[in-house]
Specification:
homodimer; alpha+beta; BirA Bifunctional Protein, domain 2; Rossmann fold; Translation Initiation Factor IF3; 3 domains; twelve-stranded mixed beta sheet; five-stranded mixed beta sheet; globular
């Protein structure tokens, strides 16, 4: 097995090493594309299953819209095409012929979906319309990084239409809260929910909400967004409904998405020098069994391991028995790198006592346990909770509150979130970015009621805002 | 509600009407593309869940490869590019610039996957490699038909690499058998498994197996295929492994796929004049409850219906209570059109007896039952089984055995499978197609041991082969 660069030495190289050596993903032949290998894709499947349940529980229905969008559709919403034009991939030839109009490979599906919404929505009876789709989208990014930012990514995009602004506002918050709770409960990620500043909002939205995750290199990752589209698309796509009084009105819309990039957050928020540390809820393997074989009793131990693996599977755990011919030491490193939450070592001694030697990957502590349903469930829950509390602690310890630009620069260089009073202004934000490379991550919802003097311009009525270097 | 054309009057119009009025799908803005609406997509989700389980049980792992394939990759296998070149969609511009090499939007993923296989496979320890992916593919079809044949479709594609020819042969059969069993058990479809003739096989395969479904208009539908790729791609992509003796060898490969087109089979094999008839296993709604409200007792009945719906959901049934303000007659038609297997009508009388008036959609028979777990389960199983036996009966009754071209033509015009002894010959097949529009569907595996004189050329040692008009 190749060694990985310890995270403490070089986070960037550590990341590339982990992605490759844990067999999460591989580079595709086209620049900026990625291949999800089975171990990485299994994490995505678990994320999908968990989030899909929450999406459906909210009354949202899945559907599928085409990959190809006529170029003219994107042009209908002025801000939308301005934002996306530089990132588009265009199909110009099909079936051996040049097409009359180039087709856009979807970068997001607002325009093609809302073309249908205009047909499907006639009266207030058709509202709210709440549609989601799991698909692939393409954005021609200049700087790419495996999983975090690529030419093509997998995601879900939710799109809703409502009769009133108040309902749409509520849905924007419901969706971003759903994401926040989902990554907290299933991915053990602590995140900050807030509003994007004007220069960071979605092209075509009135406002954008986001949840931001702080990674172990001190950079922030925008991990999912929920947008208030207001009536911007409705007016351009003519999505109208007859209200109860028989008056024709435009609908109010939202859209929200979470992508495979969240796997990048998972890697970089929890990983350590030895590799991944996966929360049990999304770990493709929750328990790995490593037999410790002495020559004379090999069969007995292996049989016991097989039986135990079968029993644990029947209980609903995701278990892998590593019966390969490699040494125990090699296996230990390998499964630690892959972030498996619990390891059971089983040799002759364990057979006799009915206990196994267990290793908790999050703490790297060893202890003896009986491999029973309740005990394993409890340990997995503890690991799940500990990873969250570690990540929360790290985030809070790397959140700096400052009130002037000099301290701001120093804090940004230390890494982490820098909390300042800031009066949203695109020009100022560009200036700050140029001087420090930091960007406004969000205006946290939890401190919306506070206001003060802008740390940079000294304007009053500025709001508490988080800045950070970001991916 | 709009009326649908009865199937017995005009199958083509009936199909388009059902797809639209049952809200399965809608046309996309680009010619030949399709939008899966929630009801149609829910069927696909149930198909995916069921088939994915069988795929994983066979030891195949899911992954995800990029949408874009360098054009040069497709050219590496000569037959492959010859077969697919006329159907390709090409991306020529990305990020505002013309690309140096056009990218192909994947029509299938052999070439991009096998580029990785060459890196991942080093020794016999890495074999068999068994990978599947669920994704979207694009083929620029000239004639399109909603769900059955479009520019873009959803599918799964399995790709395996083996050390020996025998193992690969076995895998080809395992996959096609898995499909056959899956559609029999979950989609109530009777299908014929066999080998494709030379002119119908996959571009790049040594041989192709297929399962063919006979639709109610007498046309056949190729519903899934499994290909023996032999070493054709391995040689061109240099996929080699060290065997146990340390000798470098090319792997043996297979690929197999099943797509959303199977939903077309589901519609056209089971539907009747009133619309869809869905097998319970893949019905998004298995039981619809229609309250029959008299003015004075409305609340009591509605409450009972709500409680019953809740209880049935808790039992694991997919249930919908139609509490809308439409008339019962309207609701009956609507849910019959949508093919819901069981309907419960509940009014004051039903409250008093604790029984409900149930309608079996497959037979349109009414009876009283107690809405208990065992009873509902039994009825759903009966519907599931009856749809299969009806479809089998229809298929067998529309399979004609003939031994000369005159009878062949007559049988083809009646519709159905026509069984003949036929000596595989591409030129002859083209001639038959021109004269009758029928194509060779498959050489059934069940009668491989039989041989006779070719019905057209009189050659000896011809094999029993099914012909039909096909989609």
């Amino acid at each position: 097995m190749s060694q990985i660069t310890p995270r403490s030495q070089n986070q960037a190289r550590w990341y590339q090493d982990v992605v490759r050596e844990a067999q999460l993903a591989d580079y595709g032949p086209v620049r900026g594309t990625i291949i999800y290998r089975p171990y990485g894709y299994a994490i995505w499947e678990l994320i999908q299953a968990g989030l899909d349940k929450r999406i459906k529980a909210a009354g949202v229905q899945n559907s599928y819209f085409p990959l190809f969008i006529p170029y003219s559709f994107l042009e209908k919403e002025k801000q939308h095409i301005e934002g996306f034009a530089p990132e588009l991939a265009l199909v110009t030839h099909g079936g051996g012929k040049k097409l009359e109009e180039p087709l856009v490979v979807r970068p997001t599906s607002e325009t093609i979906m809302y073309h249908s919404f205009a047909k499907w929505i006639q009266s207030y009876n058709d509202l709210p319309l709440m549609i989601n789709q799991w698909n692939n989208v393409v954005r021609w990014e200049k700087r790419t990084l495996p999983i975090i930012r690529g030419l093509e990514f997998l995601w879900q995009e939710g799109h809703t239409a409502h009769a009133t602004k108040a309902e749409a506002d509520k849905e924007v918050i419901r969706a971003i809260t759903m994401y926040h709770d989902f990554v907290r409960d299933q991915l053990s990620l602590y995140s900050i929910v807030g509003y994007k500043t004007e220069s960071e909002k979605f092209s075509g939205a009135d406002y954008t909400t986001t949840f931001e995750v702080l990674l172990r290199d001190g950079k922030a990752l925008q991990s999912g967004t929920s947008h208030m589209l207001a009536q911007n698309f409705a007016r351009n796509f003519n999505i109208q409904f007859l209200d109860k009084q028989g008056k024709l009105k435009y609908v109010w819309q939202t859209s929200w998405g979470l992508s495979t990039r969240i796997i990048g957050a998972l890697i970089m928020a929890h990983g350590d020098d030895k590799g991944l540390r996966l929360p049990p809820e999304v770990a493709p393997i929750q328990v790995v069994i490593v037999p410790i074989l002495k020559q004379d009793k090999s069969n007995e131990v292996l049989n016991y391991c097989r039986q135990l693996a079968g029993r644990l599977k029947d209980m609903g755990f995701r278990v892998h028995l590593d019966a390969s011919s490699k040494t125990p030491g090699f296996k230990f490193n390998y499964w630690e790198l892959k972030g498996v939450p619990l390891r059971f070592e089983i040799g002759q001694a364990e057979l006799e006592t009915g206990e196994v030697t267990a290793l908790r990957r999050d703490l790297m502590t060893k202890f003896k346990i009986k491999p029973k349903f309740d005990i394993i469930t409890e340990f997995l829950a503890k690991i799940q909770a500990n990873l969250l509390s570690e990540h929360k602690k790290y985030t809070l310890e790397h959140t700096w509150e400052v009130d002037n630009f000099k301290d701001f620069k120093q804090a940004i260089d230390k890494g982490g979130f820098v909390k300042v009073f800031y009066a949203d202004d695109a020009k100022v934000e560009a200036e700050i970015k140029e001087k420090t490379t930091a960007t406004a991550r969000c205006i946290p919802m939890s401190s919306l009621d506070q206001s003060g003097r802008d740390f940079y311009t000294q304007k009053t009525k500025a709001k508490l805002t988080l800045f950070a270097k970001a991916y």
